[in-house]
Amino acid sequence: MRSITKVCTAAVAVLALSVTAAACGSDSGGAGQESGGKTTITFWDNNGGVRTPIYQELIKRFEAANPTIKVEYVGIPIASVQQKYDTAIAGGATPDVGGVTTSYLANLTGQQALEPADDWLAKSPVNGRLLDSMLASVKATTPDGKLYMAPATSNLDVVWYQKDKLSAAGVEAPKTWDEFFTAVGKLTKAPDQYGWTIRGGAGSIFQLLAEAYAYSGVPEFFDASGKSTVNDPKNVELVGKIAALYKKDTPEADVTNDFPKMVAQFTSGKVAMMHHNLGSYNDHVKAFGADKIDAFPMPVGATGKRTIVANPVDGFAVFKNSEHKEAAWKFVEFLLSKESNSYWNQQTGQIPANKDAQGDAWLNERPYLKNAVSVLADPQTAVVSPPYYLPQFSSITKADTEPLFQKVLLGQMKPQEFLDTMAQKLTEAQAEWKQAHS
Amino acid sequence: MASTGTAVAGGRPRALRWAPYLLISPTVLLIAVFLVYPIGSVLYYSLQHYNLTKPWANGFAGLANFREMLFEDPLFWTSLGFTAKWVVAEIGLQLVLGLALALIVNESFIGRGLARAMVFSPWAVSGVLTTGIWILLYNPTTGIVRYLGAPEAAVLGNPDTVFGALVLTELWRGVPFFAILLLAGLQGIPGELYEAAAVDGAGRTRRFLHVTLPHLRDAIVLATLLRSVWEFNNVDLIYTLTGGGPAQVTTTLPLYVAQRAIDSKDFGYGSALTTAGFVILLFCSLLYLRLSRFGADHKG
């Protein structure tokens, strides 16, 4: 019996440890191998799933043009991609090349995981063909100003809507926030139809900030003294107005809805309008058909000046640990060429980084996309740049504050307190970063 | 005879002296790789500032992580409180329901084999699959709540209903474990004891209290202990159903570890939290084993 006690104690120790095991992700990755004179490079897609077929096609084309290089595709779900990169870096098993966005680029360069692409780009045929604004946005993310990621696409916050729902309610696509709130009220016939949906789960804060700055028209993320403007009174006002819509003009489930659940709710037809970005175009087309949906940019606030929050730029990075950096860059270069970049963005419905692709017919045939490109190109548009260079930015706007926004929706926290907390964290992170890099 | 023994021992070939160590070495190696090293590395990191988002501040932290945890982090205490509430509710209900089911399927009746299979089947379903099923059941648009007179009610999004919904899901999965272990215990009780008790005039209740329960003691202690540790460390079910939300009301300590270590990339602090969980579990388990005198000789 005593031995049973001992076995039991040991079992308890092992089980107690499973808390550690649960907190650790698995890592997978691979270095390139030479097989039969072929160089194999591993490519991680940072948004595996809907985009997988696009890359399968592009890889097929690339391998046909470069018979000595084989690309091994690994699709990583967007929700776990940062964690996968972090564990791969810690374990020394990074891919040769991977999809990266500026929202976590600083985190990767902070760990010295990426190879700068400046020299490669200077000698490349795509040099001079990539949009300067996107290149600048990438370079602004890292303290040394180098290009650790070659930009491929960018995005814009838009409000998707079902055309027939709006016309049935006699509502035009809103241009100002006043029109927007009126439209939401008119479109709601609870519990069968809701005018709006709030993203309350994962990814909520970025969308909320895009709404808040569009409403307030505050042009900078930090003021001259380095203080965050997130808790500007007008931003607080907007958060209060949005929270007031919860459960009245939106489904109750919104409080925990992440991107897939939010889109599922919209595509089920119950919700008339939904804030996301250009990237979810394919989901809507699949659900409703291309002629049934449209999108408008974020409404304009009381200042009358259109203000947008710059979306992360998405692109490709070559990893420092790669044994086949040249082959990896060759693949990046191929993905950025006019044909590939145009194909990729046509499939995803986003804005191509390659200037030559921007004149393509498919882009001009989609009014919402043409509109988005012109909003971005309009010198009157004020662009607020979030501090993607802060390695903490991602955790502040996700793990630290997402639960607080849920509290606001549930009436357990005031919008002022919520934004004050976020502002304080951002101001501190900004000061710490400045000190570390001075 | 004694001299013969000495001669054999003295003349044992050198290689043989190492044989016992050689034989236990695989076990020692496994323990070292899978227990000593992970525990040691968690302890090591709990004394470090190790935050991927602040690489410039990494380094030895002393007890700073523990100080922050105990005195400056209200979420540590709320998550610990929720964990305790979760473990107590789950273990209490699982024990009562599991015992009831075990007693029922221990009786002989037509279709007992089928009934036993039904009782145990949820245990065979994987955790993530279980939550997949229950997410569909709780879905406001397509799930079962539509028929309960509450259209569009988000059971998992409402702080008032989310705990009950989680408990129900975990009960569905956890009760069979108790039922299996207790049924095995029930079948080890000699039938003569019941006959003797019946002869002495004991009714059903007295037979249960004085024969069944004392014989089940070890099985109950073991089952509640194992399940307590499992429920304390339960991550898959709560993570997939609610992610600890809404507004952190269902965040258990292990989920909080995952949030701090993986989402916020603060592995130093996450390790300190893990260490706290480890110590709490170890202490509670040893205390429980001592108090219940598990494995001690006792009269039935």
Automatic annotation (TrEMBL), chain A:
SUPFAM superfamilies: Periplasmic binding protein-like II. Transmembrane segments: none annotated. It holds the Pfam family SBP_bac_1. InterPro entries: Bact_solute-bd_prot1, SBP. The keyword Membrane applies. Residues 1-23 form the signal peptide. Keywords: Cell membrane, Lipoprotein, Membrane, Palmitate, Signal. The keyword Plastid does not apply. It comes from the Bacteria. This is Sugar-binding protein. It comes from Sphaerisporangium melleum.
